[in-house]
Structure formats: C-alpha cells, structure tokens
Design a protein that fits this description.
heterodimer, A: mainly alpha, MetI-like fold, 9 helices, flat, B: alpha/beta, six-stranded mixed sheet, four-stranded antiparallel sheet
C-alpha cells in the first residue's frame, strides 16, 4: 500500500487524528504555559517555602521521562483511588512536563530583564504583584518567543506518547497502529504521520519567527 | 530657605551602611526641607548615589533612621509602595519600561497606582510630555528615542505621580554631551517651580546655578555643606579643595 492509497483509504480518519494531535498540543501547551508562569512567579517570590516548592516541582517534572510519568498516571494512580480516562492521563503528563520546561525558559527571560526596569517600577509605587504582571511577565514572554516556539514543537511531538494508550480518535502516532492493524500499509502509514508532524512543526516554526519579530523588545 | 521653622520633609539621622567590608555611608545626618534643592557632589565611590537611593529605600540601611514627613520609612509591602509613589526617581540609565510606549510609561503609575482613569491619565501625560518637549515621541518605544529624550520622558513619568520630592541619581552621566543641557533645562525649570529635589550630579554649573545647598561627600561621609558660593568659592576642607582642583580645567 503506497502513501497515496493510505490517504484515499484512511483519509478522513487521518484528518481526525491530525485534529486530535493539534487539539491536544494546544491544550497541553496552553496548560503548560499557564502552570509554567505560575511556577516561575513562585520561584521568584519573596516567600522561601514557595520558592523551594516550585523549584522542586520544576526539577521533578523536567527530569522524569514522559513515558514513565504516563505509566505512573495510568497504572499507579488507580491504587490511590484516582482512575482518570486515558486521554486525561496523557494531557496531565504532558502539561506537567511542558510546564517545567516553560518555567525554565521563562526564568531565562526574567534574567534578561535589567534590574533597572524593576527598580523603576518599584520607584513608581507599583506593588510586587503589579511589577510581576506589568513588567516581568510581559517582558520575559516577549523575549522568549523563540524558545517557547521550540517548546510548542516539542509539545506537538510529545503528544505521540498517546500511541501508548488507547485513544479514540487516535492521535497521529497511534494512527499508524490503527492503519497497520487494518491493512498492510507498512512504512507508508509512518510516512504520512511523519509528514503531518513535520508540516505542522515547520508552520509553527515560521509563525514563531514572525511573532518574535513583531513582539521582540528593542533594548 | 526658612530652615528650622518647619519640619524637614526628609531627615537622615546617624545613617550607616556597609557593603561587606566597605563602609559606604558613615554617620550621615542630613535634612532636606520643602522646596529645597540639595545637590550631592563628590568623587565616584563617595556614597552619594547610595545615599540618594536610601531615601526611597531602593537601598536599605544598617543603622540610623530616615524620616519622610516625620515618619520612619516603611520597611516593605503596601506602605513602602505608597511611600515610593510620593517620591519621584530619575535614574542614570533612564530605565524607561522597554516594552511599552513613552505614553504608557507615563500613564502606568497614575492608572495602576493612583487608580486614575485612562483618558484623564493620558491627557495629563501628553501635557507633561509636551512640557519636557517629547510629545511627538509619545507613541514610540524607548529604544527609538535619543538618550536626552528618554531622560526627559523619564522625568515626565516621575512628575505624573505628583511627587513630593524628586530624586535624581546622576541623571546626565549616561548622556552624550550635546544632550546634557536639554535635560538640565528641564531640571532647572522644576527647581524654579519649587520642586523639592535631591540631585546627585557632576554638573558643577547646574549645582552653582540651582542648588540651595551643596553637600560634598567623600568616603561615605558628608565632609561639608553650604550654599553654592560658599562651597565653590571658599571650600573649608582639604578634601573638597582637592576635589574642586581635580575637576577644574575640564
């Protein structure tokens, strides 16, 4: 079965799996970014226990393979009385991992902010929370568009972990098993999925570059 | 100045500060009265910038006391933010918010801290920007302005808070020579309008022309102070004479 034939036979299922991958990527990245910002705000907060807790959180989820985390969510959590649907397990794992990497990106953005910016904000009378909201978050997000784009692409590829659990509809990598259990497409199914990943990544990379040019802070 | 008749707006009392081994402020006693322009001068490393920055607590002190309107400076939190809102600060490196327009820089404090509505805040900001001569740059970001324009915008940002005192920490030291005067002119006008100012500067002509009092610092101490003509024409201490000699002819 050639690539063209895979398309004609499984085209609409493929389209649904592509949309599933995109949707999970969007949810995981948005959730990861939000949690990552929260963790980072705690990491720079004046309260030491919060700083330590957030540091531990980031180190923990940055350093566990996503697949191990998924195993824990799927097989270990039920022992604690929490049985989540497979898709929820996958989304939680990816969000936790993405948030820890997002926090590291975000920290590097904070380090790029001159101390003078913070002093000026404080001398105007802004509170700690206002300084974070009005100066620190916008400036560090705008200086980390390119690493965040990398992270978005990594998120896209990490959702392939969904092939390890039964999902309906499957995402792009799980789709390969789906096709090959119903036909003899062999490598062709992989090629189609790979092209979908690559096409999406290239488009995201392009958009990330455009966004960076628009919002980058001239210092 | 009617010294002694009214309570000083700023009073520093036996203030000491160390950076590790370095004793940067030694037993500083200084009063600043309403409407007074106090110029701090001295060799680099003499502690004048540090002194200026302790007044709005960008630098903490080890011992002694700083009173603002008779009350000790709050240590942190909401009260400290409220104090800082009443004290304007102009930095050597301008420190305009790099990601916002000049107009946003000026309106941020009034909108976020004073809770003014945006339209009023913007109208006043445009007046202030016009007053310092950069109203045409309102929609640009700081990096698109010259140093002199940025510093004038930074002064407008401080004025928008209607501060009771303005601190200037070497406001012209990072400027190209041709831009120094445009910033000094704005400062002279402020002084003439009665703004209470503490100015750290190397601009001796400004000190002579505008200061009510010149405070000379060396090695973390206030060595002597007096009116500009007393200080520049008849310095009493050897250190002040050496300093004035060293900058003559430049």
């Amino acid at each position: 079965m050639g690539v063209a034939e895979v398309f004609t036979t499984f085209g609409d299922v493929y389209l649904r799996s592509l949309l599933s991958t995109w949707l999970m990527t969007a949810v995981c990245f948005a959730g990861g970014l939000a949690l990552g910002i929260l963790a980072t705000v705690l990491r720079v907060s004046p309260i030491k226990p919060l700083r330590v807790a957030a540091d531990v959180y980031v180190q923990l989820f940055r350093n566990i393979p996503t697949v191990s985390l998924l195993v824990i969510f799927v097989y270990a959590l039920p022992y604690l009385g929490a049985t989540l649907p497979y898709r929820a397990c996958l989304l939680c794992c990816v969000i936790l991992v993405v948030s820890s990497f997002a926090s590291e990106n975000f920290m590097s953005g904070i380090n790029a902010i001159g101390v003078g910016q913070i002093e000026a904000a404080r001398s105007v009378g802004l509170s700690f929370v206002q300084v974070i909201r009005l100066i620190v978050i916008p400036q560090s997000l705008r200086t980390t568009v390119l690493p965040m784009t990398n992270l978005l692409i990594a998120t896209l590829l990490t959702t392939a972990m969904g092939s390890q659990v039964p999902l309906t509809p499957p995402e792009l990598t799980g789709m390969v098993n789906y096709v090959n259990s119903r036909s003899v497409a062999g490598i062709s199914a992989f090629v189609v999925s790979a092209l979908c990943y690559a096409g999406t990544s290239v488009a995201l990379g392009f958009l990330g570059n455009r966004l960076d040019e628009r919002v980058r802070i001239i210092r | 100045m009617p010294v002694g008749t009214t309570e000083p707006i700023i009073r520093m009392h036996h203030v000491d500060k160390h950076y590790g081994q370095l004793h940067v402020l030694r037993d500083i006693n200084l009063d600043v009265h309403r409407g007074e322009v106090v110029v701090l001068i001295g060799p680099s490393g003499s502690g004048k910038s540090t002194l200026c920055r302790t007044i709005n607590r960008l630098e903490t002190i080890d011992s002694g006391e700083i009173l603002f309107e008779g009350r000790p400076l709050p240590e942190e939190g909401r009260e400290l933010a409220a104090l800082r809102a009443e004290i304007g600060m102009v930095f050597q490196s301008f420190n305009l918010f790099a990601h916002r327009t000049i107009l946003d820089n000026v309106t941020m404090g009034p909108i976020e801290v004073l809770r003014r509505n945006r339209r009023e805040a913007e109208a006043e900001a445009m007046e202030l920007l016009a007053r310092v001569g950069v109203e045409a740059q309102a929609k640009k970001v700081p990096a698109q302005l010259s140093g002199g324009q940025q510093q004038r915008a930074a002064i407008a940002r401080s004025l928008a808070m209607h501060p009771k005192v303005m601190l200037f920490d070497e406001p012209t030291s990072a400027l190209d020579p041709e831009m120094i005067n445009e910033v000094l002119e704005v400062m002279v006008e402020l002084a003439q309008e009665g703004m209470t100012m503490v100015v750290v500067t190397h601009e001796m002509s400004f000190a002579r022309r505008v200061a009510d009092r010149v405070v000379f610092m060396s090695d973390g101490q206030i060595v002597e102070q007096g009116t500009p003509s007393e200080f520049f024409d008849h310095p009493r201490s050897a250190r002040a004479r050496d300093f004035l000699d060293s900058i003559k002819g430049h």
